[in-house]
């Protein structure tokens, strides 16, 4: 039984093109071949989660049934009652599998929970989102079939981008006009080739060619600078890893968006020139956007809303600070229960809080210079702060300080 | 006091910026309205106009300029 | 029609690009001959790209290049390095350096896989470091760094059902790089289990081989490396005519000059960048528990010997010493080193590999080592005393008697030689 990891090698793209062609012809003539689409989705999921990964496949099936019960159950309940405890329990239940998968390797190093499968965190985002929107009343009808289609939309199943249910449903049910579909195909081809450049050329250059060498040199110099391991190679590693992370992930995201477009679904973009950000807030509006917007809409906004409505914190400036800390702490834990992911989260919370102070100060002092140079300086500082956070995120410091022998 | 004026005053209270001259400015990209101010706006709308907008209903593209906010408030009130 | 025209605009370039790519890599194109300079660059480049490839090595070895297998010591390109001596004194051979930090037996085994017709009945030099023989043996990450899909594919296509090939397949499957490709891993499983690989697998692997060969031939034309310039610069330091005593004296002089900042006879630059300051304190007695006597490396090494025997390759082995002062400082056990040396030599001699230059007892010679465990100045000269006649003079054909017991776990872990 063969196994294909999404977008990882040229063959995957060949299979993808062959599989999507009939679907594309259908869409071109204004018809979505639902049965065909369901069949090829099944085949691709089998390729991703079959063969040597069959255990993941089983975990995925179990997970889908579980979420159908939780989300469907809550939607049925919501029709005649709206107690907060029910909502809270549904959210908690929905994240239980993800929590187990993240906590198991932290308790016993190297062990992976058998509940886990590639993409579990992205599916969890989608499920929690459904429960929250059902609570708000914006999702009124629960359709189990559409919910499964939404969760298992195969172009984005492994690593996002994280779509929104109502948006997805609308695209799925409404076939684009021919003119619009041609525009989507045009964009898809562009994204696909941009993705090749990003992931297979630049990502390869930074990640496969340069990174191991720099890692090797940095580890050789781990005793440098009073045993902190701070060396020129480490600085090089930081920038190279940041470039690798961006090009690899942005390339992958472009593939996922391109495949979605070919299927007539306008999955949202994940990146918007993040290294041009003027400050950390701006950065999070450009980096892994579907994740940060998910956090903004479903955690940060709700948290501030809750705090303000119940007057939990008196001082106004303290409210967003608390919300940022909790927001980014959760994001850190979501990445994995290791010290460096959590420190990464706290670091960004700290950076954004400092950034807020600066923005307030700037507002009070309109005489501060604002020109091309100060903007350049802002971009430079933001870029370096971000790269440093990625060095933490990379886990390389963990290797350098605690594992390298 | 009409809705337009009430919204403009509300925004000035929340953000400390007088926006009466740029009613078509995108408040999110210009940084006038951040997530925090948005939540405050929603709470104030609830208190002052009695309109209930759940956070998940809050589609940024429909609320991005003062004019759009005014139109939204008028349609929901 | 407007929409149709637009479709052509969108997909036309894609179709052309895909078509040209398929042509570029699937036709047996050859990509021409490498220039003399490209050959010289590749021979001293020590670059993973060269190790992983095939065509440039084949061409060089068909000329007067001789493979020098080894590891990190090959990068000590001082004036007395074999590559410099051979070039300066217009010897009949030129070393083609194969190996760098982290390359051990298993890497070398695969490096030589597609050099069969060039190595058959020829001579090679092999520098074998005791430091390879750790408890873990070949580190998977280092193996991955030099891993070549091309060599692996070539090897799989020609693999037989015998002890050595089954062992190699098993070892490869223990490395993440060996499992990276589905087809490769499946074929390796077959070989490891003593089953033939299927027709379909062979077809896929052959297609893959053509593609990888084109890639190798095309990209091998681009050799960018500073090492050749270093060799050429080093040549200028040497006297015009070869004279062993004169060279020995010069090596001692250079060695003295370049080891002035420490008491351990370690090259200044190495000491400064890797050992100075606080680092030295930590390293004191840090190697007391190092042990090279038990290691899977012994069986990996046996793979090489089997291959050499199959192709009747005449091999000059060199076992370098450890810098004595360094060993004292770090607490490295010399009896352990000597036993390791004995074990390696036993494995060689039992099977008829008689050309062994054992330098283990030269660790206290002045300016023999460039730093901790790497040959330098006078060390290279001493090795040259053996290498030069071995390669330039007629040698009797070797007669090898390969014994499969060296593939067994029992040999890997044995500390008693009987």
TrEMBL record, chain A:
This is Teichoic acid D-alanyltransferase. InterPro entries: Ac/AlaTfrase_AlgI/DltB, DltB, MB_O-acyltransferase, MBOAT_fam. Keywords: Acyltransferase, Cell membrane, Membrane, Transferase, Transmembrane, Transmembrane helix. Pfam families: MBOAT (PF03062). Belongs to the membrane-bound acyltransferase family. The chain crosses the membrane at residues 12-29, 35-51, 58-77, 83-101, 113-132, 144-162, 188-207, 219-239, 246-265, 285-307, 373-397. Coiled coil: none annotated. The gene is dltB. The keyword Transmembrane helix applies. It is a multi-pass membrane protein. Pathway: Cell wall biogenesis; lipoteichoic acid biosynthesis. O-acyltransferase that catalyzes D-alanylation of both teichoic acid and lipoteichoic acid (LTA). D-alanylation of LTA plays an important role in modulating the properties of the cell wall in Gram-positive bacteria, influencing the net charge of the cell wall. Catalyzes D-alanylation from DltC carrier protein. It comes from Loigolactobacillus zhaoyuanensis. It is found in: Cell membrane.
TrEMBL record, chain B:
GO terms for molecular function: ligase activity. Carrier protein involved in the D-alanylation of lipoteichoic acid (LTA). The loading of thioester-linked D-alanine onto DltC is catalyzed by D-alanine--D-alanyl carrier protein ligase DltA. The DltC-carried D-alanyl group is further transferred to cell membrane phosphatidylglycerol (PG) by forming an ester bond, probably catalyzed by DltD. D-alanylation of LTA plays an important role in modulating the properties of the cell wall in Gram-positive bacteria, influencing the net charge of the cell wall. The modification O-(pantetheine 4'-phosphoryl)serine is found at residue 35. It holds the Pfam family PP-binding. It is found in: Cytoplasm. Belongs to the DltC family. Its main location: cytoplasm. Keywords: Cell wall biogenesis/degradation, Cytoplasm, Ligase, Phosphopantetheine, Phosphoprotein. Pathway: Cell wall biogenesis; lipoteichoic acid biosynthesis. InterPro entries: ACP-like_sf (IPR036736), DltC (IPR003230), PP-bd_ACP (IPR009081). This is D-alanyl carrier protein. The keyword Ligase applies. 4'-phosphopantetheine is transferred from CoA to a specific serine of apo-DCP. Residues 1-77 form the Carrier domain.
